[in-house]
Predict the structure.
Amino acid sequence: MTDRIDSEQGKSESEKSTPAVDIDNNDDTSAKDNSSSKIKADKSALTVAISNNTKILALFAIACTLAVSLVNELTKDRIKIQEQQQLLRTLHSIIEPSRYDNDIANDCIMVSAPELGSDNVKTAYIARKAGHVVAVALTSTAPRGYNGNIDFIMAVNIDGSVSGVRVLKHQETPGLGDKIEIKKNDWINSFTGKKILSDDDSRWAVSKDNGMFDQFTGATITPRAVVNGVKDTLNYFNRNKAMLLTRPNACSNIATKSIPPINEAANE
Amino acid sequence: MSNEIAPQNSNDTDVTDSLDEQAIANATAKAELKAEYKELAIQGLWKNNPGLVQLLGLCPLLAVTSTVTNALGLGLATLLVLICSNVTVSAIRHWVPKEIRIPIFVLIIAAFVTCVQLLMNAFTYGIYQSLGIFLPLIVTNCAIIGRAEAYASKNPIKKSAFDGLMMGLGFAIILLLLGVIREILGQGTLFDGANLLFGEWASVLRVEVMQLDSQFLLAILPPGAFIAMGILIALKNAIDNHISAKKVVDTEKVIERVRVNFDS
């Protein structure tokens, strides 16, 4: 079986590999009136080869696509679960799980405001206990980091105090600015329990700017950006609390596909 | 190899002779096969190492080796893709016209990488996150298409699988070495975040090698990877030079002895 295919393969390969040379040779050896028909025959052989190759290529493309879609089908649910778990882990770290009793991952609203750092649509997750809102976890962005935007998620209690902040994504300098990650340093916990007293509360700054938050040795710009980002988000929440909490749920089980995954990622 | 054995058997007339010869031929064939596998292993792990000698796939090699865990994750993913692609390319080598072999190889490799990416997303979510773009970029790792083109498309499945294993191991070992060097120098730890790759039990693997007051930035940043890589290559070349120098000395000694004998 294989031998036969081998020999066929060998023949067709040798034919295919030198089509141009064949045409030239025919031109030289055969009579001129005959050559045009020969070229035609060669051309048709070439077309056959091309169409054969196309078919083989198409077959491989279909087979590969099938394999990938099969694996995708098998892993789809698990990936979904993993993303949900990751989201829940992040949310649990900023809102005590005992403080709410709703399915927080599927109770969210979409927010878009310039105060949140960028024009992207942000997701806010709402924690309720017995139907009453206890806290809101807002995803937000701190612009003006040392090396681009810093994405974070912060939970605000209904009384306006900070429940917790976690950095989701950043490109700050490893070893200096990356202390905003909880893995590297617990600086980010210094926001917990803090309240904002007025719109331009001067305590909400790094200590170099006479504020109440420490900066890091060798890195002031990163904490400054985070402090300002948290402050802006908090101000936005306080001002728009009533409006935000009356919005309809955008993450009910029917619309789960639209949830953007939230990952507590390290810097790359 | 089977071609070499076949004519010998047909020429033999005596039954016992042919049996003996066959046994000898089988033994030599086995020895040859063994030698070939050994050669494949040496090529993949040392002489023709994709990381140190071919310098293929440098982009992920340098980018993700800031910790051992990341290095191990990418090393295993590349190893898996390399073995699978080598086996598949070898299995279909008779059915693929050589004009369109490259697009087909790329298709196969891309399909395997996507599968591995999906699997890692599903089962090792943390490492999937920290490898980021470099996981899908395995498709463009020249080491893989290089092996498919240079070896797997011309050799039987078993050998191709072994070649893939050895080349992948060679690549993974270099990744690991770089990861170890950079993580110890940069953070003073080993296997930091191993739980991302192997599950929760692996957090006990984390070793605090030395306490650093501040991280050694150069080792964590990409230039550190270049420097460490350069040192590894230099080390490899130094060992090679040492070995060849030793060989030369040995042969010279033999020659001297012969001369002494001749004089006396």
The two ends of chain B are 49 Å apart (CA to CA). Chain B has two domains: 1-47, 54-260. DSSP finds eleven helices and two strands in chain B.
